[in-house]
Amino acid sequence: MDKQKRKKKIRLATAWLGGCAGCHMSLLDLDERLIDLFEVVELVYSPIADIKTFPKAVDVTLVEGAVANVDHLELAEVIRRNSTIVVSFGDCAVTGNVTSLRNRLKIDDLLTKVYHEGPGTAPRGLEEDGIMPALIPKVLPLHQVIHIDGYLPGCPPEPDHIWQAVSTLLDGQPVRLTQEMRYFG
Amino acid sequence: MSVVTLHINDEIVSARSDQKLLEVIREQGIEIPTLCHMDGISELGGCRLCLVEVKGSNRLLAACVTPVQEGMSVYTHSERLVNYRHITMELLLSERNHTCAVCVMNGHCELQYEAAELGVDHVRYEYMTPDLPIDASHSKFTLDHNRCILCMRCVRVCDEVEGAHTLDVMGRGTNSRIITALNRPWGDSISCTKCGKCVQVCPTGALFEKGSSVGEMEKRHAFLSWILNGRERKEWHW
Amino acid sequence: MNREELQVIGEREREKQQSYRCRILCCASTPCLSSGATAVIETFKEVIKEFDLEAEVTVTSTGCMGPCSRGPLVTVQMNGQQDVIYEHVTPELARDIALAHAAPEAKPLDRNVLPADLPFFNKQKKVVLANSGLIDPTRLESYVARDGYSALAHALREMTPTEVCEEVIRSGLRGRGGAGYPAGLKWDLVRKAPGDKKYIIANGDEGDPGAYMDRTLMESDPHRILEGMAIAGYAVGADQGFVYVRGEYPIAAKRLENAIRMAERRGLLGSRVLDSPFGFRIDIRIGAGAFVCGEETALMASIMGRRGQPWPRPPYPAQKGLWGLPTLINNVETFGNIAPIISHGADWFGAIGTEKSKGTKIFALAGTVETTGLIEVPMGISLRDIVFEIGGGIPNDRQFKAAQTGGPSGGCIPTDHLDTPVDYESLGALGSIMGSGGLVVMDDTSCMPDVAKFFMEFCMEESCGKCVPCRVGTVQLHRILEHVTDGSATLDDLDRLEELCVMMKETSLCGLGQSAPNPLLSTLKYFREEYEAHITNHTCPAGKCTMFGVPPLQLTRDLLRNTLQAKNDTEVS
Questions:
Q1: pLDDT of residue A111
Q2: DSSP readout, C263-330?
């Protein structure tokens, strides 16, 4: 990354849909490279930053997690509308992965099993409660909902892979991972 | 045995006349993906990953089943072929529930490896997410239909090498299913010798040894040619 | 039996038929049987008995007469008069017909009579179906009376095997199963293949939705197929033949079985055919309901008792077929052409049809036309003639929209190409195929993406599962078409659809997968605007599709609830 040439910092966002946050943990595992990263980028939205609404004019957004409910659909749409480049970040966003394991079940059966028959007092699992957003019939990988510019598979993607992808992106190159970095799982 | 001369990617190559194209191509050090092929058992020609272009033929031919011919001119990595292999891999990944992250074969899987090799970083088709059972009735092995790609290696090795023919296939189309003991639980099978060859040749985590957890299952393929060399030629070198 | 005895049998049968003043022929093929032909035949027999007319009037159960939608059909032949064909015959009407024709001053009824100059018959040319509707398929004599087995006798006595092959090559006959490979060349390949043991297979595993040419031929004139196979056996040096009959055709299998037994008893099949040194046996194998077993290699796997899956060619069946031996496999209709070619000569046959497609072709005309049924037309006739002349046009004042040829492997041909001659090359150039002979006519109430979906669903369910492009590709194509027809597809999906179609065509293992995208590709080519209307305007121009779906991104809370509600409602109703 050529730091001198860039005057304006790149506006980076990360988002968290239906996933386990492991990809964000892996991002944090960039460790000291995070310092390099934040010299050239400004984090404008992230689950690890206290920002409530998705801002406008974002350069790059990394999206973790699959699309599992209506809130995810709406956020995905907002992200696409306001970002120049959207990257599917991790296997859940790329393939649906563990989040999509519920796809073979009917939603009603799933909710009954988890919330009605589950332990403790849980919400009824219906979106009328205003507590839980309505689940969509099947969990979808992100690219089946919005246009995606790059894919970063892995569960989670290793810090080195993230670094490789992010640094090529910040150089204005499309995400192109080498063969050994392209693994699912 | 006579010798034939042919062109592979415009290089002149000689081969024995009883060889199949795939063998000759691999001898040249050219990597060509396969999933249903396995040294030591009969060919199936079903995964369609080893398709090659042969000059003068208007069809693409599967290298694993195509015999070499004098003067043929073969191309292994044309743009069209690379694209088709890519699509084939996407189709395979979309068919069943290949969730690498929670698979016993994660990191050792042939499907996963070939997908990465072919540059498949996402699947453009809808995932079918079928509801498939797992047969864990056997004392040593488990059959997980969710990860099966229907390459039939297990069926062929059980029939041709072990001679038990415990495994077979039923149904058709995408509803095809590997069955054990005439569609009864594997654990009830009288014919199964528990030799584990089916498990060792399975390219994915569809067949695995009990007790292995995520990423712990590794498979040995070389044993097959070792057994066959010993049985047929009495050569017992590992 | 020898050739002279054969002639005597034929002569005696002809005399017997002529001795009746009135011959009533009732169609006893599946379509007419299902609309009540059995009761009609019984009525005729009762009337004849009741009025003691056994010496003057005879009633015969025959094969198919053609316009099946007008069944049950009855033809009445009177010496010295023109034949009269009655449609929609009921037992009551049958009584009237019998009495009217048996009366001393016989006069046809004025009800339910098909006009003698009906275009349905005029434009046809019957070669393979020449006997169909005129002979009793359960009686060998009936076939022999119309010169049956004379071609076999001629070939055995006057021709060498090489000459038979050459004659078939010279005739220009092409395989009637769909691909149109020159039959004679195939025969010659098998003849030249080394080995003492060879096989002949007649493929009667017809499976295209709406097609029943092979069934009709097997039901109406089984001996014709046996004779063709025996000639082929003599030509290529095979002593064993199999007829592979689709499992859903019990009547065809029964009549073939009966025909084989009779031919063997008379020495027309068996160890010494017509007292010559040539021996030939035929057995029947019944399919078990898999469409893919119509594919030659899968069919052979099925005959051998294996799972009905194709294997990669080469080696071709002519080199390594049944049990690894040279095998000649042709469609039953191809074998139906052999006897006329040998009897009348290759030049006679070559004069029918076009330059590259010789002879005639049987089609099962179905869909929205006035008269549906089984037709045999010379190659090169235009689709317009078939639809508007023979079929009588589109009923209910609707417009013609498309003709689908070749079943799930074929394509849809739009109005602009109605004047295309029907032959192998012209149909291929339009993205369709001749196929085995299904021809479905559609009017403007048909939705083309919906039609494509129907055929894709068929292929999806019939894919054997051996190769990936066909096994998974058909399912994915069907999924995308479902999205198109429920309105949840995007324009990207159309590109994906096309790309996947081309990929499947080129990479699938056998003909099923290679041709499965044809209906889809051809509708996409000629009716793309209909696909786009479903996607961009969210409407189905033909009004067929429910359009309940929504593209994922437009799924909001309200819409999601509405869609699920609508889906539940339709499922409940």
A1: 79
A2: HHHTTSSBSSGGGSS--BEEEEEE--S-GGGGSHHHHHHHHTTS-S----SSSPTTTS-GGGS-EEEE
pLDDT digits (tens, 9 = 90+) for B85-112: 999 999 999 999 999 999 999 999 999 9
Handedness of CA B166, B170, B176, B177 (dihedral sign): negative
| Contact criterion met (CB below 8 Å) for C333 and C374 | no
Query: B116 contacts in A (CB within 8 Å)?
Result: 179-180, 182-184
Q: What is the pLDDT of residue C314?
A: 82
B238 assigned to some structural domain: no
Fold observed for domain C360-446: Ubiquitin-like (UB roll) (3.10.20)
Domain boundary residue among B20, B54, B77?
B77
Determine the Cα angle at B232 with ends B231 and B237, to 5°.
65
Which amino acid makes up residue C117?
D
Of C553, C557, C564, the CB nearest to A77: C553
**Tokens, residue A27:** 């991002």
Taking the C-alpha atoms of residue B179 and residue B188, their distance in angstroms, rounded to an integer, is 12
Residues in chain C with pLDDT values less than 70: 553, 555-573
The answer to whether residues B216 and B105 belong to one domain is yes
Q: Assess if residue B93 is contained within a domain.
A: yes
- CB of A59 within 8 Å of a chain B CB? The answer is no
**DSSP letter (8 states) at residue A159:** H
Q: Among residues of chain B, what percentage have pLDDT more than 90? A: 89
A163 touches chain B (CB under 8 A): no
B112: its two tokens:
């996963």
Which among C266, C267, C265, C303 has a CA at the least distance from the CA of C287?
C303
What tens digit of pLDDT does each residue of C29-54 get?
Answer: 999 999 999 999 999 999 999 988 88
What is the ipTM, given to two decimal places?
0.95
The listed CATH number (1.10.357.20, 3.30.70.360, 3.20.20.80, 1.20.1440.230) that belongs to domain C449-572: 1.20.1440.230
CATH superfamily of C18-120: Glutaredoxin (3.40.30.10)
Cα separation, C377 vs C48, in Å, equals: 37
Please answer yes or no on whether C560 and A77 come within 8 Å at the CB atom. Answer: no
Average pLDDT rounded to a whole number, residues B25-44: 94
Asked if residue B63 is part of any domain, the answer here is yes
Residue C403: both structure tokens together? 């003709």
User: C445 to each of B161, C69, C368, how far by Cα in Å?
Assistant: 58, 21, 10
- Domain termination site, one of B40, B60, B77: B77
Exposure of C206 in the CB half-sphere (CA atoms within 13 A): 28
Q: Which residues pair with C74 in a beta bridge?
A: C26, C86
Environment class of residue C109 by beta-carbon count within 10 Å: exposed (0-12), middle (13-18) or buried (19+)? middle
A65 CB within 8 Å of a chain B CB: no
Residue type, C262: M
* Per-residue pLDDT of chain A in tens (185 residues, 90 and over written 9): 455 555 688 999 999 999 999 999 999 999 999 999 999 999 999 998 888 899 999 999 999 999 998 889 989 999 999 999 999 999 999 999 999 999 988 888 887 777 777 676 665 555 555 667 888 888 999 999 999 999 999 999 999 999 998 888 888 888 877 777 778 87
- CB B218 within 8 Å of CB B123: no
Q: Show the domain range for B33.
A: 3-77
Closest Cα of chain B to C465: distance in Å?
4
- The closest alpha carbon to B54, from B84, B30, B29, B76, belongs to B76
Of the candidates C231, C295, C293, C243, the one whose C-alpha atom is nearest the C-alpha of residue C268 is C231
For each of the domains in chain A, give its residue range(s) and CATH number, in order of start.
Answer: 10-99+136-181 (3.40.50.700)
Pairing of strands A41-45, C199-204: unpaired
pLDDT, residue A135, reads 85
Contact between chains at C506 and B84 (C-beta distance less than 8 A): yes
